What does this fold into?
Amino acid sequence: MICLDEMGPESAKSHPGHEVIRPALDAERRARAAQEIDYGRRGKGYIFGAFEPATGQAFTAPYAGRTIATWVAFLDQVAAWMGPEPEHVYAVLDNLSTHRAVDVLLWNLAHPRWEFVFQPIYAAYLDLIEPWWKILRSLALKGRRFETWDAVEQAVEGATAYWNGHRHPFLWGSRKRRPSTRQPGIARLPLAA
It folds into this structure.
């Protein structure tokens, strides 16, 4: 099974990060961190992605636009990336019109081991590439300023390589449990007012 989708449009702009603001020791309120508005008119595009939840392996490719031709080209890249080993490939897709176009269905006929599985409408949470996009954004874009679309492409390529070097399987509906900071047998008492 492989999840396919596109992220974007993304722009070459400033992407806000999380600034830590410590309270002042003199108990005065501090102003919130502010960032200058950046409209990002320095280039834009889409990041197409393929994600294999069973292994955590990911593949991304940047494109200037989201068209039927670019989607078919991306499917060719994904087929080459996966190699001939899997006998049957279930590709999970959303219901975007470019995913259901005639050229895409003809591509599917030319690749008989592929089967497209379209997720139900309003059920994006069923596609495991959606939480992975959030991870990719935090690795590649968060807290950075990009002057060109090429810089965004390089950041996404580097983040994808980093992810593939540290990947882990994704399980739908499963979250990692953090160890409790509480010590057994010690109850927390409410603070006195």
The mean pLDDT is 83. The longest helix spans residues 149-165. Residues 48 and 74 are 7 Å apart (CA to CA). The chain has four helices and five strands.
